[in-house]
Amino acid sequence: MNLQDYLRKQQPAETVCELVSVITGAVATIKSEFLGGDEKTGIFNIYGEEEIKIDKKANQILIDVLSKSGLVSQIASEEEKEILQCNSNRAHFAVTLDPLDGSSLIPTDLAVGTIISIYGNGDVLSGLGEISAAFYILYGPLTLIVFADQKGVSQFVQDKNGVFQLVKEKILIPDGNLYGSGGLRKDWLPGHKKYIETLENEGYKLRYSGSGVADIHQILTYGGVFSYPALQEKPQGKLRLLIEVGPWCYIIEKAGGLGTNGKTRILELTPQKVDERTPVYVGSKNAVRRAAQFLEQ
Ligand code: AHG
Ligand code: MN
Ligand code: MN
Fold first, then answer.
1. The overall pTM is greater than 0.90
2. Which end of the chain, N or C, is more open, meaning fewer C-beta atoms within 10 Å of its C-beta?
3. Which residue's CA lies nearest to atom 9 of ligand 1?
4. Where does Mg(2+) 2 bind (predicted)?
């Protein structure tokens, strides 16, 4: 079954299927920009990170197709300072985008991704508990989509004709033993350091590429925990609550896992602004729950 047929079966609203196909229809164009996409632009986004060409291109491609669709009233993108308001005459979805996640890996030819969340209520700042569906596209040796909504999590792989075909459904995250943590060890707070050392002593294996979607996908597939913690000089860590962490936690929780900031479930939080950051622990329930015990000490 392909993604379109799956969504038609799964989703009561035809407009959701259309919205997802508008986004996934842009995949080939985004991929065509990878070659030469690592050129520096000299422009820094609101997080102080220098954008490379592919960040700008992927952002523009997705904003163009979404705003032309007439289905979206708001877009919040990692590469835009403000929430974009669009003319929507056919539906009023709000969408968050990380157009190219892990873009620093483009020069190394490792896997990168696109992260999307959809708010059926048209308001990206209404709270992460309001997410109606979320998915990521992972551009690796294969191009795949992991799509989550109320009914669960499914994986699709792009075939030779460019069509996304269902390969796994009702995905559940196993209770595995992989871990990855962002930030320099010297900047970790004592509780986080103790937590990671405990996992290492128990035989957890390090898997961290610096491309969030690839790292999350590995955790979803094999189990364990992905973290980007609070750091000495950055109590909110690095990752973006609305645009990266919210959709990841939605997907992982729909697969039976858990996502927290170390204390509170991420999906109970309401971002106050587009660029709000948060520490994150996301993955198998068991490993994520244990983080809280160390962080309280
Ligand atoms: P982006 O490429 O969209 O800026 O995101 C990078 C993010 C995320 O993909 C990854 O998990 C993390 O930043 C890596 O950060 P470090 O390089 O600090 O490990
Ligand atoms: Mn990102
Ligand atoms: Mn990005």
1. yes
2. C
3. 212
4. 98, 101, 244
Ligand 1 pocket mutation, candidates 188, 228, 242, 252, criterion most atoms within 8 A of CB: 228
Query: pLDDT averaged over the chain?
Result: 96
Which top CATH class is 178-295?
alpha beta
Closest by Cα among 199, 211, 242 to 108: 211
* pLDDT tens-digit readout, 113-147: 999 999 999 999 999 999 999 999 999 999 999 99
Tokens 């048209």: give the residue. Answer: 122
Place of tokens 């299927």: 17
Establish whether 208 is an annotated binding residue.
Answer: yes
* Residue list, CB under 5 A from ion ligand 2: 98, 101, 244
Rounded Cα distance between 184 and 186, Å, is: 5
pLDDT, residue 297, reads: 62
Pocket lining: 78 vs ligand 1, CB cutoff 6 Å: yes
The single-letter code of the amino acid at 37 is G
Give, in words, the CATH class of 3-168: alpha beta
**Residue 103 CA, ligand 1 centroid: distance in Å:** 8
pLDDT band at 51 (very low <50, low <70, confident <90, very high): confident
Could you tell me if the CB of 36 is within 6 A of ligand 1?
A: no
Q: Determine the average pLDDT of the residues in 11-33.
A: 93
User: Residue 79 is inside which H or E element, if any?
Assistant: none
